[in-house]
Amino acid sequence: MSGVDSDRAGEKETTSALEETPLTVIEPVSGWSGLDVRELWRFRDLLFFFAWRDVKVRYKQTILGVAWAILQPTLPAILITLALGRLAKLPSAGYPYPLFVFAGLLPWTLFATILTNATNSLTNSEHIVRKVYFPRLVLPLAAVGVAVVDFLLASIILVLLMVWFAVIPSWSIILLPLCAALVVLTGLAAGTLLAALSVYYRDFRHMIPLLVQALLFATPSIYLDVQSMEREHRSPPAVSSDADAATGANQVASETTSSEDDTQRGGGWLMVLFYANPLTAIIAAFRAAALGIACPWGPLLVSTGIVSIGSIVSLLIFRRIEHTFADVI
Amino acid sequence: MSFSLRAEQLSKRFRVSWSDVHADYRTLREDVMGLFRRPLAWLKGTPTDTTNEDFWALREVDLDVAPGEIVGIVGRNGAGKSTLLKIISGITKPTSGRLLLRGRVGSLLEVGVGFHPELSGRENILLAGAIAGMRHAEIRAKFDQIVAFSEIEGFLDTPVKRYSSGMYVRLAFSVAAHLESEILVVDEVLAVGDAAFQRKCLGQLHETTQSGRTVLFVSHNMGAIRQVCQSCLWLDEGKVRDRGEPAEVIGNYLKQVRPETTSEITFDEDERLPFQLRAVRLLDLQGERQSTFTCDEPVVLEMDCVSRKRVRMLFGQIHLLSSRDGALIYEGDSHDRGENPFDQMEPGRWRVRWTLPARLLAPGSYDVHLDFVSHMSDGPRNIFSPGITCTFELNDFASTLGAKRRGHLGALIAWEATMEQGQREGE
Hints:
A: mainly alpha; B: 427 residues; transport (chain A)
């Protein structure tokens, strides 16, 4: 019920026993604070129960039930396959386009679900926030539960597709959980910040569907073979470690070899733009790990850096204004 | 001295537009402008402008509560009672001052917080327990006790959305009542539930303190406070007005409240309520607003109501309390005479009148306590409970005894003498 809580189980009536009970001091909050892991740990049961509740309630009173979890990435995958694979005939790294797209949409759906649920987590629990104390971070964290369950269910389709197209995963499959974790962290970083902000401004709630839509297009690795595009633009095969270096190499290339021209330079900037969104590299890496394509290490490293810094900033802001939630929400 | 809870100069400031639940949310546009003027001001927590928008819910409250003490907290709406409880439970932080607490705090600020309608009773016990701060093992250990107390054994696996409101309240209270904590704070939650269950809950509260726990208990029910509390705290405009013996503090409180309650009270509209009052006023026969009447004129209570949804079996309850000591003088409800206008009241704005006949009550001062309740199969459920709304004074100028008349009734009853035939004196 409260942060003012000791793990003392027994009940003693005597004053001496009361003297032993830990003293909590509640004071005005000032300054910045980081993650209070101990307090969060004390509320692990609540975290679990919130996640469990969301999973239980998710598909209650629906006809399709759990099938919705599978349909969510599958339907857009079919649409994109028809539109871009059949009509635009986009290249797909030598893999069947449906498999290629689904392997990108699967982590994307994980991200989008976490972003949406985490952002709405505080305002959806407005009532609880106003009447009960617990570390508020529990709510966006618990939003991950449903998304992960959905993700695992939808992964079955990926496995089936891989069997159908006879794609044998390489050793890189062991990186898959790591890539998925990075997707979760990205969704949490953005979702936690937006959750905190939407306590103050409901605008952010309304922004979410639009943001998710825009991000789908701004994450080209879902439907484009970004890696081979990148390789093409680096005409003399320069092995560079990140997106910036890639552009650098690109510039050097255009200066030394005069065969390529402005279009190439423009393409280099396009790559930077692509990778400015950390999801681009993370989703490409997820697919690479699943299907055994070469991992885009450079961009992935940069993206991991961006996500880490983003998570810290998001956490700091959340913790800074957390204590006002009950008053403002 | 050992204490269980100690507040030192505890203060809490709200920005009114923020604290008001029903007010519009802040808009981004509005604040982005402010942000440009004073960058990062709100991140630092400093108010962008200290205008009259600031509202001090608590001002420099000092309070010491001994272990095992039950403290009743009284005060008008907005006096800071709920804010104090929220600070104690850690939900909101004070603006200045500090609060020392010994041990774990359990809070019951509202019944059924965190219940999910789609989940079964069993699942909701687990969830609500976790939300209330219980560890999983603790809930498991108390599970049977909770179920027994709530009397819902047969419906454990039914989704609570199919529960009647009475069952819902019982289950919710049971979970909260079984919290293990050294300090328990309880806000006006006993207003819901039927009378029998309320008694059971009060009993449970009483038992709680037998085991040495400290309880802070907010209620508008003076009787309940007098019954269970050892001491009473009166908050007024965020300050401690009085603290001491319940009977004494309540007496002072009622004395102070009476002259300030006017002959009219208005309520903010809350779109979420299916039924509510907008205003209650006292009128004389000419339709003039009054708070002082003579015993020889009727007192008209006029209620402006809004019905937004038809509520089945909705009815009004009126209690007249003596302002002097809170004693119940009269009880009535809208079933008393003929048709009950509130049952399935058509959506719209209504005006309802209730008239206290002349010469019914003794001179004195009376509080009008109102409740609107929906009668479900398993007991009543509060729909709108303003509590004490108006206070009126009755003066007796027509009789010789006048204002000196004691007791509750004011009827002038004739002493009729008839001489028995043939018994004339001196015959």
